[in-house]
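Anyone up for a design puzzle?
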């Protein structure tokens, strides 16, 4: 009880997570399952202990400080029990002297900063963002002289390619990718020898794995207990009541992200035909008035030769946003050209696009990228050109367009380029080439940015 306000978990997975006796408990699955609040509540059971200390980890400090992130949420909770914040150091001090801090492990080597530390409670927010090496190194810092048995708590969303997916595989149906409900909260034990993890249903079944004690005698390696507790948005009644529109946000995601973040699927991966299907798009014969246009480019500069008959191509896709907020893909071009040929293709295409079309070009990092940008900008004087680096992986960049297409919000103007473009997007990301997907992503994501109207009346090259 704090200042007349009771702090308690929600009935269901959150309660099970906070009641788990496991050495390592992982709480995860869909978005909105109340994972962050469960983590923030966990240390409160020890705050009367003056020697107690806990550390929350996120991969970057920016993630800790983001609106709605760990620090932001903690300011709604910890003052209720008398804690004082030190925002500069991301630390909370409690009246007893107990402390809770928040830190990053941005790089693999950052773990070295924690050499010699003793941390009674380790808390990882979004465990799949950390490497296996980072997790097990920090596990070696999980020790205590304050009377609290050392333990670990973590949250995560599904990631089929992460080490966490392998670590919790026993709790997941390997056919469907969904959690096995009857195994939720069940304990298993493991010992880790080198990089190999040995599992058992009972700790005594691991007794064959031994080590030398201080007296030189062979003794069993102490096993660690682990559990996984899945949770989804529908388990978080408080959020469902406070923000009923959040479900619609998750439903609007692309198929892969919706299965992960709404369905809690640990096996779903992008595959050909999942991120795009041509039947999602209505093919039309005319473009309405009042469309705002962007042409996105994916650049290559390798002509086809006998030695290289199938190189990447230069691809340009023009997408417009209609007055009603829906989108239309009106043109696509692809060719295999020399650097001079690429520049000519971009300029000739721009001269045929509707006036005011924004031309979005990628900028490679480093000096070579700056030189290329300068040359193209000079070549494209008189057109509305914008340069920006690629951020995130290709699937992540394509997902917003995929979601809108699946929702029926993308039309395609009939043209001879349709078949090649449709086929390429249906093959993404498994096909050898992703030029069409990359230029489509760039056009759509540039078009989706909140852009002042004045930009479209300005000529010259711009940085984002």
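Challenge accepted. My sequence:
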């Amino acid at each position: 009880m704090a200042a007349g306000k009771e702090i308690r978990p929600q009935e269901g997975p959150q309660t099970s997570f906070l009641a788990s006796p496991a050495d390592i408990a992982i709480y995860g699955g869909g978005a909105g399952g109340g994972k962050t609040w469960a983590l923030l509540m966990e240390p409160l059971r020890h705050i009367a202990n003056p020697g107690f200390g806990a550390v929350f980890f996120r991969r970057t400090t920016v993630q800790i400080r983001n609106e709605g992130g760990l620090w932001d949420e903690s300011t709604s909770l910890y003052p209720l029990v008398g804690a004082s914040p030190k925002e500069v150091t991301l630390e909370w001090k409690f009246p007893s002297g107990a402390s809770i801090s928040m830190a990053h492990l941005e790089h693999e080597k950052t773990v070295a900063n924690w050499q010699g530390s003793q941390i009674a409670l380790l808390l990882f927010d979004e465990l799949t963002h950390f490497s296996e090496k980072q997790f097990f190194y920090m596990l070696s810092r999980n020790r205590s002289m304050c009377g609290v048995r050392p333990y670990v708590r973590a949250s995560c969303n599904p990631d089929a390619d992460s080490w966490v997916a392998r670590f919790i595989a026993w709790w997941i149906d390997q056919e469907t990718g969904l959690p096995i409900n009857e195994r939720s909260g069940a304990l298993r034990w493991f010992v880790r020898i080198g990089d190999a993890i040995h599992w058992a249903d009972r700790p005594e079944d691991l007794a064959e794995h031994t080590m030398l004690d201080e007296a030189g005698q062979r003794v069993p390696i102490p096993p660690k207990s682990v559990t996984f507790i899945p949770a989804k948005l529908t388990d978080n009644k408080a959020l469902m009541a406070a923000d009923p529109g959040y479900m619609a946000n998750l439903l609007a995601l692309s198929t892969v992200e919706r299965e992960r973040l709404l369905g809690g699927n640990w096996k779903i991966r992008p595959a050909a035909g999942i991120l795009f299907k041509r039947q999602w798009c209505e093919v039309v014969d005319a473009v309405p008035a009042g469309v705002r246009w962007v042409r996105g480019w994916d650049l290559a500069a390798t002509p086809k030769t006998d030695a290289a008959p199938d190189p990447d191509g230069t691809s340009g896709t023009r997408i417009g946003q209609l007055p009603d907020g829906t989108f239309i893909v009106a043109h696509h071009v692809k060719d295999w050209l020399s650097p001079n040929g690429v520049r000519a293709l971009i300029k000739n295409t721009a001269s045929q696009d509707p006036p005011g079309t924004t031309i979005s070009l990628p900028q490679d990092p480093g000096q070579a990228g700056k030189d290329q940008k300068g040359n193209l900008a000079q070549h494209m004087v008189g057109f509305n050109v914008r340069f920006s680096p690629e951020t995130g992986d290709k699937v992540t960049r394509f997902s917003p367009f995929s979601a809108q297409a699946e929702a029926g919000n993308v039309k395609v103007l009939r043209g001879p380029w349709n078949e090649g473009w449709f086929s390429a997007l249906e093959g993404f990301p498994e096909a050898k080439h992703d030029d069409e997907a990359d230029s489509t992503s760039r056009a759509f994501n540039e078009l989706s940015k909140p852009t002042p109207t004045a930009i479209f009346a300005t000529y010259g090259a711009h940085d984002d």
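A detail worth pointing out: The domain at 13-241 is CATH 3.40.50.300 (Rossmann fold).
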